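Quick one, probably user error.
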């Protein structure tokens, strides 16, 4: 899913809706001892192939270096897969999962070891903010989104009355997460979450996702043949993880099932319920594109600096296109994703709420902008510095290491530029008399190498 790449721009790897996000963004009657060994399937193969002709597991150790991600550890855990699943059964039983449900959906499982490559891959993140916007906010998605808004008008009307969330934001999430339901993933969620609950470096997290998947199957909200999604277990048009489903899914069409796969009313309302639960402010937008004056102090462009729109105006910021801010008392922080050479954005509370869906600023900006375009808005006014080459993961890590050697606090040197790394870049720029906009460029890396 395209959202996985956005983790490169997130402050830290964290599981989010739908995607382990972009790491990937994952309760019975008879005790296990009474199960007849003859009834259980044979031990899983240690060289399983992925479903649907997908690539098999590489057989190699993961890039993280985690002891549970060595090839030998993966093979050992795969050989112990059946024992691991039986060890989880008491936890499922406590949550009301029947032994019949467990045997029907769990006993036939074999591990999908291809997921180990996906869990621990370290791709070269080389896309810029404008690259992602080009991919996610295009004419096709805008046109299709407007069709969906018209086709499901009644569901969107009811959702807005009940939850107070802007319909265009929900439609944008639908469009970005799954291209309006056309790219929801084909892996059985129960197999993916079972594999990750027993094999690899994130078993504690995915054990909860696996148990929540079994609860969904026990209740019958989504049938097993429709409970398919990403390798991390995200499913449905707006890509909910099973634990997110437990907390926020609603039966909006009142048919007795919380079906966020095939019921537009249910997944539209459930997505709105999630945003509301995360603090959505009714009637507020996500933010504004702004122009920034010459000589501006870019040290103020920090997520921790919350000022009212009136205060930002006093500092010389203006809404792009010349329109006034509709509510000058709203508080916002300044984001300059391309530094002084690109557009600026004042981000409101609802932008942070979108980031709880996926902790990447590029993702949240794409959602907000696509929502604006769906309601008839125009493209961003200011140009992006498209001549700038995005740094590779290796170059980003090198920049962090060079900053750390000079005494700047960057957090982990992992190639991901979170708030600490950005602050370090700004502080270094300021110390050298450069514009402290926190924008990492190849020129800045060369500057660090020469120091």
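Nope, works fine. Designed sequence:
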């Amino acid at each position: 899913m395209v959202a996985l790449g956005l983790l490169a721009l997130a402050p830290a790897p964290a599981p989010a809706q739908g995607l382990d996000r972009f790491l990937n963004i994952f309760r019975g009657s008879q005790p296990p001892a009474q199960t007849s060994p003859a009834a259980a399937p044979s031990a899983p193969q240690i060289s399983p192939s992925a479903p649907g002709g997908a690539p098999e597991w590489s057989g190699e150790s993961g890039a993280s270096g985690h002891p549970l991600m060595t090839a030998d550890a993966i093979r050992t855990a795969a050989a112990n897969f059946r024992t691991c699943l039986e060890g989880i059964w008491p936890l499922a039983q406590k949550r009301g999962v029947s032994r019949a449900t467990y045997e029907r959906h769990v006993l036939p499982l074999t591990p999908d070891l291809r997921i180990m490559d996906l869990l621990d891959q370290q791709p070269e993140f080389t896309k810029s903010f404008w690259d992602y916007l080009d991919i996610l906010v295009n004419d096709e998605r805008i046109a299709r989104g407007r069709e969906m808004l018209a086709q499901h008008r009644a569901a969107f009307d009811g959702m807005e009355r009940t939850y107070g969330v802007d319909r265009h934001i929900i439609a944008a999430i639908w469009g970005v997460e799954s291209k309006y339901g056309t790219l929801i993933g084909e892996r059985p969620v129960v197999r993916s979450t079972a594999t990750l609950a027993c094999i690899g470096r994130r078993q504690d997290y995915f054990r909860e996702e696996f148990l929540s998947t079994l609860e969904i199957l026990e209740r019958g909200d989504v049938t097993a043949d429709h409970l398919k999604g990403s390798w991390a277990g995200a499913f449905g048009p707006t890509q909910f993880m099973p634990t997110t489903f437990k907390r926020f899914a609603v039966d909006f069409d009142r048919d007795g099932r919380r079906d966020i796969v095939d019921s537009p009313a249910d997944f539209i309302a459930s997505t709105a319920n999630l945003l509301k639960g995360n603090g959505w402010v009714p009637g507020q937008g996500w933010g504004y594109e702004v122009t920034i004056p010459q000589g501006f102090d870019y040290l103020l462009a920090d997520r921790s600096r919350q000022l009212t729109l009136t205060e930002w105006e006093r500092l010389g910021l203006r809404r792009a296109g010349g329109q006034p801010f509709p509510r000058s008392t709203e508080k916002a922080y300044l984001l300059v994703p391309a530094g002084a050479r690109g557009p600026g954005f004042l981000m409101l509370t609802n932008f942070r709420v979108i980031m709880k869906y996926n902790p990447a600023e590029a993702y949240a900006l794409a959602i907000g902008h696509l929502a604006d375009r769906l309601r008839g808005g125009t493209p961003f006014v200011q140009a992006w510095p498209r001549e700038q080459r995005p740094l590779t993961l290796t170059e980003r890590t090198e920049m962090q290491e060079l900053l750390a050697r000079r005494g700047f606090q960057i957090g982990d040197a992992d190639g991901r530029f979170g708030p600490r790394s950005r602050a370090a870049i700004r502080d270094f720029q300021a110390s050298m008399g450069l514009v402290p906009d926190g924008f990492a460029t190849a020129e800045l890396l060369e500057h660090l190498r020469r120091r």
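The beta strands are 187-188, 228-229, 287-291, 307-308, 318-319, 331-335, 344-347.
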